[in-house]
Design goal:
805 residues, alpha+beta, 13-stranded mixed sheet, 6-stranded mixed barrel
């Protein structure tokens, strides 16, 4: 199971025929020589500039920009309407670069004309029913409503669903020329989408020609970038572009604006190490237990040698036995594997039916492990058993042999070092997860019902009137205390990023997250005010100098020119004391705003992330979320369903053509820790298996020791030794080995967990008990395992032990 999961994680984006030549362009942004941001998004002109300047290196490029919205179509007599998120506007070269097979349509013409779209097979079934394969969807239309209006798209193709092991997952591919017709009254989108150097909303991929070295291409591109961004360089900005191999994005990329939450190479390789350790520990046990059984088979070996069996024949016999045992184990493992597949898929979230055998090489690995198991686990016992001397065996002197003693002790130390190491890691991961889930966030996410805002804006005035009417209706419910409109809620990516600057420091812009909110945002989420005041409809900032400054700049559509900032933004902007920020003016989005308050830093994203500078401004339109602060008590949990039903009823009246989508903020926020929780559960499961296997080995060796010293124990009991002294005598060697194993694991565990915790901006400190308690647990488990045999031997009747003497 571990190797299949690891194989799947390592297979991301390898299905593309040209995967070794496909690179994503990532962008680093520097300010005054210091790295400020690392983003997966670039400017729309980057791909074309690369190809035009380096035609000998770049075979093709693809740009992608996300534009969500509401799609609808008429299927028979039924109007189907859905809110869609995975909508990409892209170049016609998409199918030249990527290997997503078209089921209908022609790849070379599919995305050439404006207002054309390619849909996935699952979307085809969603909108046109299960019989879509029997009819040609090419030529049919589907309607899209978004911020830029209402448009009919002509379907020019149906593409197979992106596989699970693709970092690029989409539902709709809209032709890039469709962007040219966008209209918000201010922007020439035809020019901007082709030539803009400072519109950072595009994902860019390039297909390099065979033999091209990406590092050399990056270096050659630098002077061209500097030339086109010269005006920004004058105020201290520098841009550098890097080519990321597409097959490494999933495990090795952790940039701003990633298309999806990527995996973690560190966790994948840790699981791989666990898998190897489990196999090795199992082989170690087989070696130890086989040599334990050697005593019982000693007379068999002696008789075979007396009767003429050669050592080669005996080695062959024991290797054949090891082969049968390993084959039986493999067959049983495969049976359990098949039974566990449904649970494994459910746990990992991977639904693709063929993911478990994506890589044919997995069968080669299984064969290699099988052969290694035979050699490693069978070779040593075979040579030990075949080396017995018949005369000693038949005289019963074998029980005094110390053959292989140091090897057995070394293997015990290895087993319990691994067990102790894994338990210490499990304890630390559990503590970090608990810390993140229970840490004070500085923002109230409990009992927050979040409704996704309307996507279609046909008329700005109607949009405003509708959303305010909906907000007013929600506030009328008796169980709703606050309602707020905002561009973001905690745990969402703040994409409104901009450079802001103090008016008294015009040459020192700072990069901040800029979030649009309304007057009720702070009260709804319980943000703590440090200085100044919150937004207030009755206390507007409208001084003559600010009004004059904004005459030629966007006014944000509001009469209130107030903004609020968090502590981190105050420090970044250079205010020595947060009180100094109040009434200061800053330039943002081309306008001038006045700081009215500073709020305490809060965790907008998971505790993996540092506090980031956030500027809150009053946004007049384009809210993505409507958040209800619901006040429920233990006696009224059933009221939640009533509130949701009420919110949906009011939504249907105001937005009859848009889907009603909602989620609970605490669940949404904790989804950020899902990957960590999965890793912890897997690690916990296989740590338990490791301990169990190690205990099996210790159990067998304690039985072996007790068997070797049967007569000694009998004589000691006859001479008056107590049960406690005999148990201590038999246990002390094993206990000492476990102590040595634990001490060896201690520094490794400490260094490993320090490395793992370094990925979290807010993390626990490794206390002594996080390492000491697992060691005690390993010691107790080992002692209990040994005690089963030692107590049994200590209570044995000495007459039975000595009756043959």
């Amino acid at each position: 199971l571990i190797f299949q999961y690891v194989s799947f994680e390592l297979s991301y984006d390898n299905f593309h025929e040209k995967s070794q030549r496909i690179y994503r362009v990532a962008m680093d942004q520097y300010k005054q020589g210091a790295l400020e941001t690392k983003s997966a998004m670039t400017f729309p002109v980057v791909g074309r500039t690369l190809q035009e300047n380096f035609p000998e290196s770049v075979a093709a490029y693809v740009r992608l920009i996300i534009q969500t919205g509401v799609f609808s179509c008429l299927d028979g007599k039924e109007q189907k309407i859905f809110d869609e998120e995975k909508v990409f506007y892209t170049d016609n070269s998409f199918f030249e670069v990527f290997s997503f097979p078209l089921l209908m349509g022609h790849a070379k013409q599919a995305l050439v004309e404006p207002n054309t779209v390619v849909i996935t097979a699952s979307i085809a079934e969603k909108y046109f029913g299960s019989s879509w394969k029997e009819e040609n969807l090419v030529g049919k239309s589907i309607q899209h409503k978004s911020y830029f209006g209402e448009t009919d798209y002509l379907i020019t193709g149906v593409v197979a669903d992106p596989p699970e092991n693709s970092h690029l997952k989409f539902d709709f591919l809209v032709s890039y020329p469709t962007i040219y017709a966008w209209d918000d009254g201010n922007t020439n989108y035809r020019d901007e989408s082709e030539n803009a150097w400072f519109w950072e909303s595009f994902y860019t991929y390039v297909l390099l020609k065979p033999g091209v070295e990406p590092q050399k291409l990056e270096k050659a591109f630098e002077p061209i970038v500097d030339q086109n961004t010269a005006d920004r360089r004058e105020i201290g900005f520098l841009y550098r572009f890097h080519l990321q191999p597409i097959h490494k994005i999933h495990l090795y990329s952790n940039l701003m604006n990633e298309l999806e939450a990527n995996g973690d190479a560190q966790k994948v390789y840790i699981l791989l190490i666990i898998g190897v350790c489990i196999l090795v520990i199992a082989w170690v046990n087989f070696v130890n237990l086989s040599t334990v059984k050697a005593i019982e088979r000693a007379k068999e070996v002696g008789m075979r040698k007396v009767l003429g069996a050669s050592r080669k024949q005996l080695i062959g016999q024991y290797l054949l036995e090891a082969t049968f045992l390993n084959a039986a184990g493999l067959l049983l493992a495969f049976t359990f594997f098949q039974l566990s597949i449904p649970y494994f898929r459910q746990f990992t979230g991977i639904t693709q039916s063929n993911f478990l055998f994506l890589q044919p090489a997995i069968f080669l690995y299984i064969g290699l492990f099988f052969l290694a198991g035979i050699v490693i686990s069978g070779m040593y016992p075979a040579f030990v058993l075949s080396a017995y001397q018949p005369i000693k065996v038949l005289k019963g002197k074998l029980s005094q042999s110390r053959q292989g003693g140091w090897l057995k002790k070394g293997l015990i130390v290895f087993q319990f070092s691994m067990a102790a190491l894994f338990i210490m890691i499990v304890f630390t991961i559990h503590r970090q997860l608990s810390f993140m889930k229970n840490h004070e966030l500085g923002v109230d996410i409990e009992q927050k019902l979040v409704i996704e805002g309307a996507k279609f804006i046909n008329n700005m005035d109607d949009y405003r009137d509708n959303v305010f009417a909906y907000k007013t209706s929600l506030k009328q419910h008796s169980m709703v205390q606050h309602v707020t409109l905002s561009r973001n809620v905690p745990a969402t990516e703040i994409r409104g990023n901009n450079y802001v600057q103090r008016l008294d420091k015009p040459d020192d812009p700072k990069f901040c997250h800029v979030m649009g909110v309304d007057y009720d945002y702070m009260a709804t989420f319980g943000l703590q005010l440090l200085v100044g005041r919150f937004f207030d409809e009755n206390q507007l900032v409208s001084s003559p100098e600010i009004i004059e400054a904004n005459k030629k700049a966007p006014d944000f559509g509001t009469n209130d020119h107030a903004i609020m900032i968090n502590e981190t933004a105050a420090k970044l902007l250079g205010f020595q004391q947060i009180e100094d920020a109040i009434n200061q003016q800053i330039a943002v989005f081309g306008g001038v705003k006045e700081i009215i308050g500073v709020v305490k830093d809060y965790h907008h994203k998971s505790l993996k992330n540092k506090f980031e500078p956030i500027i809150f401004y009053l946004q007049p339109i384009g809210w993505d979320y409507i958040t209800l602060d619901v006040k429920l008590t233990k006696n009224t949990p059933e009221k939640l369903a009533d509130i949701i039903a009420y919110a949906e009823k009011e939504w249907r009246q105001i937005y009859p053509d848009e889907p009603f989508n909602y989620f609970f903020l605490d669940d949404f926020f904790n989804q950020q820790y899902k990957a960590d929780q999965q890793f912890y559960t897997l690690f916990n499961l296989f740590t338990g298996l490791t301990i169990f296997i190690a205990c099996l080995g210790l159990f067998g060796l304690s039985a072996y020791t007790a068997l070797q010293r049967t007569k000694e124990i009998g004589i000691r009991k006859v001479l008056g030794a107590s049960v406690q002294s005999i148990v201590g005598l038999l246990s002390k060697d094993f206990v000492m080995l476990v102590v040595i194993a634990s001490l060896l694991a201690l520094p490794i565990a400490y260094l490993a967990m320090q490395q793992w915790l370094a990925a979290y901006a807010f993390r626990i400190t490794i206390s002594w008990w996080l390492l000491g308690l697992p060691l005690l647990l390993v010691f107790v488990i080992a002692l209990l395992t040994i005690s089963i045999q030692t107590i049994k031997a200590a209570f044995a009747n000495p007459v039975e032990s000595l009756k043959y003497e």
